[in-house]
Amino acid sequence: MPPLQTLQTFSVVAETGSFTLAASELNLSQSAISRQIQQLEHYFGCSLFQRHTRKVVLTEQGEAIVPIVNGLLISLRNSFEATRKKGRSLTVRMPPTFARRWLLPRLTDLHDHHENLNITIDTAWFARPVFGTGGIDLLITYGNGHWPGMRVELLLPEKLTPMCSPELAGSLGEPARIASLANCVLLHSNPRQSDWALWLQAEGAYQITGARNQIFDTQDFAMTAAASGYGVTMGDLHLARQDLESGALVTPFPRIIESGYGYYAICPARADAKAGVSDLIDWLVGERPT
């Protein structure tokens, strides 16, 4: 293993993009920062940064090890903190939409039930999950529930229906007409647009297309854009609950479909891996809507 100090220095330089700023943050000289990065580059056998006059830029190899180094540092920090507090730390990876719209409103209740549990919320949903030391303890992800060799628990079954702002809903007619969607911007968090296709097919209106399509990389962005009046999104009733209760979003059409997909909690089926997160999974399953 490379020296821990070089890993911390690499993380700070990657974040700041500057040897000078990193030196200031770590209270070291710029030459010390440079030496530590050179030491780490010698260890990996490649350049980690492209040096420019006023900044440094990660190379492809540097980009690749950033999540590994940051994950290791977070794991160490949490472990030390848990030992100091006589608590327990877990790293849970999940999609940003699930974190913001489902877990965050329930964090207080989680901590009330598990006072000694410290959770690091990791939203790097695009990264390949690595379980164990330096990685994650539990993965919450979207899918169909089929992950052989893993313990899999359903948390949220997906229930979809179009959603938009109350003002835009008024333009769809009273009652809302499917044909009116052709005049709207259709918002997507699914690049294949399969959620809209499923719903329109259930309505027998698969030929309908919007005036324009806008794709986002998270359902949270699509729902936020819909609440602002920009267009109509295909939203999950569970994840949109707060916006629906507040009136920021409305559901102009009565049809709700179950896609067969949803959000699942996943961990290795090994006894030691399951034991470490079993109480958290039990709480998550207990919060599952009936």
Automatic annotation (TrEMBL):
Pfam annotation, one family: HTH_1
Keyword set includes Transcription regulation: yes
Lineage: Bacteria, Pseudomonadati, Pseudomonadota, Alphaproteobacteria, Hyphomicrobiales
Recorded family membership: Belongs to the LysR transcriptional regulatory family.
Span of domain HTH lysR-type: 2-59
Coiled-coil regions, chain positions: none
Gene3D superfamilies (UniProt xref): Periplasmic binding protein-like II, Winged helix-like DNA-binding domain superfamily/Winged helix DNA-binding domain
Protein name from the UniProt record: LysR family transcriptional regulator
Keywords of this entry: DNA-binding, Transcription, Transcription regulation
